[in-house]
């Protein structure tokens, strides 16, 4: 998991993890592209929100996306 952005007012952090290997025919939930990494082949990102808490759990958002702008457009 990698922290992407932090919202101090909401006391939460947007995190992402890499989805690899992809299922046959799986692509970005918004634009239909697949992210091509230099190493490891095709992949997508899964985004979630992690609240500030002692024993917090990540609340994963629906879908897998090639970038944060696609995730933001899908969940707008």
- Given as residue ranges, the uncertain stretches (5+ residues, pLDDT < 50) are none
Q: Radius of gyration from the CA trace? A: 13 Å
**End-to-end Cα distance:** 23 Å
User: What count of structural domains?
Assistant: 1
Strand content: 35-45%
Secondary-structure class: mainly beta
Q: What's the β-strand tally? A: 5
Helix content: under 10%
Instruction: Note the main sheet.
Output: 5 strands, antiparallel
Order of helices and strands: EEEEEH
Mean pLDDT: 93
Helical stretch tally: 1
Instruction: Give the overall shape.
Output: elongated
Keywords for this entry:
76 residues, mainly beta, 5-stranded antiparallel β-sheet, 5 strands, elongated
Write up what this structure looks like.
The protein is mainly beta. It has one domain. It is built from 1 helix and 5 strands. Strands 1, 2, 3, 4 and 5 form a 5-stranded antiparallel β-sheet that branches. Strand 3 (35-36) and strand 4 form a beta hairpin. It is elongated. The two termini are 23 Å apart. The model has no long low-confidence stretch (mean pLDDT 93).
SSE diagram, text form:
Blueprint: E1 2-7, E2 12-19, E3 35-36, E4 42-51, E5 59-60, H1 68-74
Antiparallel strand pairs: 1-2, 2-4, 3-4, 4-5
Provide a short characterization of the protein structure.
The protein has 76 residues and is mostly beta strands. It has one helix at 68-74; strands at 2-7, 12-19, 35-36, 42-51, 59-60.
């Amino acid at each position: 998991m990698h922290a992407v952005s932090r919202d101090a007012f909401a006391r939460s952090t947007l995190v992402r993890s890499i989805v690899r290997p992809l299922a046959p025919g799986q692509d970005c939930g918004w634009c239909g592209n697949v992210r091509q990494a230099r190493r490891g082949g095709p992949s997508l990102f899964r985004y979630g929100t992690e609240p500030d808490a002692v024993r917090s759990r990540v609340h994963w958002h629906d879908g897998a996306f090639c970038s944060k702008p696609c995730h933001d457009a899908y969940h707008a």
